[in-house]
Design goal:
The complex is a heterodimer of chains A (292) and B (240). Chain A is mostly helical. Helix content of chain A is 75%, strand content 4%. Chain A starts with a helix and ends in a 13-residue tail after the last helix. Chain B is globular, with a radius of gyration of 18 Å. Classes of the chains: A mainly alpha (292), B alpha/beta (240).
């Protein structure tokens, strides 16, 4: 019994990173009604970019690597906006989608090329801390992952609900014509959405690297799939949905890993996705008709 | 006197189909000018072209001395034009207050914005009652008032209104027109699209009739009421 509880809690804590990736997918979809399939790859790419600090400054502290990943995430987000959305006709639904698929593969190739496909060690924080309650333990690094992810979510909510930019972002996502009539520049809001989700992705990538202990190009595909699953389960366009679904998927996969092993667990995650698509296709938090 | 808004030979097209085929009109400062015309005549296309949502292919639009042809919507809002769009298009999942703040998006100075909100709440008491409610929960008439208030939040020199009475109950329509008359009294210049010619006759000083993308009539309310063809099509055959 205790080991199940342990598996759930470890999984839910790590699931916070899935929640962040899910938020990235869902926020862009909410604002532009487009999928950015390169998002998880860009997040991993940003985490790699964080490692560049170690090239310049050997023995740089872990937080500096994180900070660099965060900044790289924002820059990469803007780059993805420019290459996959800004100069590509938005009217054609396939054009931007395929552009982001191309970007996903491009980022993947760049990572493979730069690292010769070898996994890179990632600095961890608090990995020597362990909270114990009898046989039950909470890993310090996972607690940090969870804590930082929650802080990011709170910061995002404050940004969306307490700032002028947030007001504009919500206005564009609900009624882009009316937003334009209010003098809001839709292109600017779209670009900022990519920068903000990019920043979140950089953090998520670094947190994943830190808790796994290494980064590998093999991370991008499963992370893309998990991010999309979280988005679907949470309900496309819903941020609370992505948070809940991220934690849910994290806990779910870890329990199945505990019982069925690491090679079998993703099978069940896919089955969970199909169960949702059949029984609750709009996800947990289907967004009500915000557009009329 | 030079008009506040002057549209000349405006052509706006969707692909190869020209929805506006050379429209010219003028709106005098301080007046209510009304645009009549059947569905599909190009009235909404004209409104969107003036507001910058659609880019005209040819022709010109001037606001006062300034040429605003083909400029982006945010530039046109800054120049002093606000559009109350057809079907209201309120931000359904945002509160009434947030809708109003979005309307003031380009303005700086929170205190002045808040005092404008306060002033509008006096004019639209229903909006005060529902200030914290999501706009999507409002009735059609309340949403229309919100859309008007939101447009006024940018402090426009020219207010464009696209069928504000559409789909509303007669009593609510009367209220909307009372508000239009009030805005006029306060000196707001209004270009109004309205299907209900009887109501428009009560408030407007000048009329344009648009048919198939062209202006087919321009004149005073008196001239409009005297025109046999228009009377039959828009006022019903019975003389009132």
């Amino acid at each position: 019994m205790l080991d199940i509880l342990q598996a759930v809690s470890d999984g839910v804590l790590f699931g916070a990173t899935y929640a962040l990736i899910g938020i990235g997918f869902t926020l862009v979809f909410g604002v532009m009604h487009k999928l950015n399939l390169s998002y998880a790859a860009a997040s991993v790419g940003s985490a790699y970019a964080g490692l560049l600090v170690l090239e310049v400054m050997a023995g740089a502290p872990a937080w500096l690597v994180f900070l660099c990943a965060f900044a790289a995430g924002g820059a990469l987000g803007y780059a993805v906006y420019l290459t996959c959305f800004h100069f590509i006709p938005l009217r054609s639904p396939l054009a931007t989608l395929m552009a982001t698929v191309g970007m996903l593969l491009l980022i993947d190739e760049v990572i493979v090329h730069a690292t010769n496909g070898m996994p890179q060690a990632y600095p961890a924080i608090f990995d020597d801390v362990m909270l114990r309650a009898g046989a039950f333990t909470l890993r310090g690094d996972l607690l940090l992952v969870f804590g930082v992810a929650v802080l990011c979510m709170i910061a995002l909510m404050v940004l969306l609900y307490r700032t002028r930019l947030g007001l504009a972002t919500r206005a564009v996502s609900q009624q882009s014509v009316a937003a334009q009539l209010c003098g809001i520049r839709v292109g600017q809001v779209n670009a900022m959405t990519f920068v903000i989700t990019g920043l979140l992705g950089g953090i998520a990538g670094a947190l994943i690297g830190a808790s796994v202990g290494a980064l590998s190009p093999l991370l991008t595909t499963p992370l893309t799939v998990k991010g999309l699953i979280v988005t679907v389960i949470g309900g496309l366009g819903s941020i609370p949905g992505a948070i809940v679904a991220g934690l849910l998927v994290g806990g779910f996969e870890n329990v199945l890993q505990h019982f069925r092993g690491v090679t079998e667990r993703d099978l069940y995650v896919m089955l969970l996705l199909f169960a949702f698509l059949v029984f609750r296709p709009d996800g947990l938090f289907a967004t009500k008709g915000g557009r009329d | 006197m030079a008009p506040l808004l002057e549209v000349r030979d405006l052509v706006t097209a969707y692909g190869k189909i020209e929805a506006l085929r050379g429209v010219s009109l003028a709106v005098q400062e301080g007046s209510i000018t009304c645009l009549l015309g059947p569905n599909g005549a190009g009235k909404t296309t004209l409104m969107f072209s003036i507001a910058g949502i659609l880019r005209p292919r040819r022709g010109s639009i001037r606001l006062g001395a300034r040429d605003i042809t083909g400029r982006a919507p945010h530039v046109i809002v800054a120049a002093g034009i606000a559009l109350v769009p057809e079907n209201r298009l309120v931000f359904a999942n945002m509160s009434v207050l947030e809708n109003l703040r979005a309307g003031a998006y380009q303005r700086r100075g929170g205190a002045e914005i808040e005092s404008d909100i306060e002033r509008l709440m006096l004019r639209f008491p229903r909006l005060r009652e529902r200030a914290a409610q999501n706009a999507g929960t409002l009735s059609g008439g309340e949403q229309q008032m919100l859309a008007v208030a939101r447009a006024l939040m940018s402090r426009p020199r020219l207010l464009l209104m696209d069928e504000p009475s559409l789909g509303l109950a007669p009593l609510v329509v009367e209220e909307i027109f009372r508000i239009i008359a009030e805005l006029h009294r306060d000196g707001t210049t209004i270009l109004l699209v309205e299907q209900n010619a009887h109501l428009a006759l009560q408030v407007a000083q000048h009329f344009y009739l648009i048919e198939q993308g062209k202006v087919s009539f321009s004149g005073s309310p008196g001239a409009l009421a005297e025109d046999e063809v228009i009377r039959r099509a828009y006022l019903g055959s019975a003389a009132r």
